[in-house]
Design brief:
Shape: rod-shaped
Radius of gyration: 52 Å
Helix content: over 70%
Structural class: mainly alpha
Largest sheet: none
Distance between the termini: 179 Å
Order of helices and strands: HHHH
Number of helices: 4
């Protein structure tokens, strides 16, 4: 027994289905035609309301995103300012720490010089070395404060900048004082050395004259 459906029966089933589809379409159409305006208006209003609500949410999200971007930019700027200020404090501390250390070294070395009248032969060279060290220290940190400290100050940090400048000026005055002490010691050392050389010269001349006199008296007479 064949399980296939004859073509004629399939055609009849097709026609029956088409008729049912047409009936369903006509029913829907007739229902819609009874009150089209009210239903369409309701649908349109509903979609318009949903659209406006979605549009408002979208605009709100855009505004929120814009506000967050502004906040992020401001935080980045504040971070840059903070890092700059942090580096400024670090460099200022380094500057004065190095200046204090250099001043202490120079002061201790000057105090080791023998102040007696018997002057060491290398004292002038030693004092000249200290004076050069003093000058190099001032030049080094003058360059440092101009290149690594002053550029980090903000425009509204005038008082802070002036305070640092005043402290730095006082430190430089300390170095100038040491430099003057070195110059005075150099002058005194040179003067004493000159006096010693003259004294030795007189002694040598006196001794030569004495020797000549003795030779003349005991040998040539």
């Amino acid at each position: 027994m064949s399980s296939s459906i004859p073509i004629d029966e399939l055609k009849q089933i097709k026609l029956a289905l088409e008729e049912k589809m047409n009936e369903s379409y006509d029913t829907d159409y007739s229902d819609n035609s009874t009150k089209p305006t009210k239903k369409k208006k309701t649908i349109i209003t509903d979609y318009k309301s949903k659209y406006n609500s979605s549009e408002s949410k979208y605009r709100y999200l855009q505004l929120e995103l814009s506000n967050k971007e502004i906040e992020i930019s401001e935080l980045k700027e504040q971070l840059v300012i903070f890092e700059k200020h942090k580096l400024l404090i670090k460099n200022v501390n380094f500057l004065f720490d190095r200046l204090d250390n250099a001043f202490k070294i120079l002061h201790d070395r000057i105090n080791t010089i023998n102040d007696s009248h018997i002057i060491k032969l290398n004292t002038i060279t030693y004092l000249q070395t200290l004076e050069n060290l003093c000058l190099k220290t001032k030049d080094k940190y003058e360059e440092y404060i101009n290149n690594s400290v002053y550029p980090l100050f903000l425009d509204d940090q005038i008082i802070f900048k002036n305070s640092i400048t005043l402290i730095y000026s006082n430190k430089i005055k300390e170095f100038n004082t040491i430099q003057n002490i070195i110059k005075i010691k150099k002058y005194n050392t040179q003067f004493n050395n000159t006096g010693i050389i003259i004294l030795i010269s007189f002694l040598v001349v006196f001794m030569l004259q004495l020797i000549i006199s003795v030779i003349y008296y005991f040998i040539l007479k």
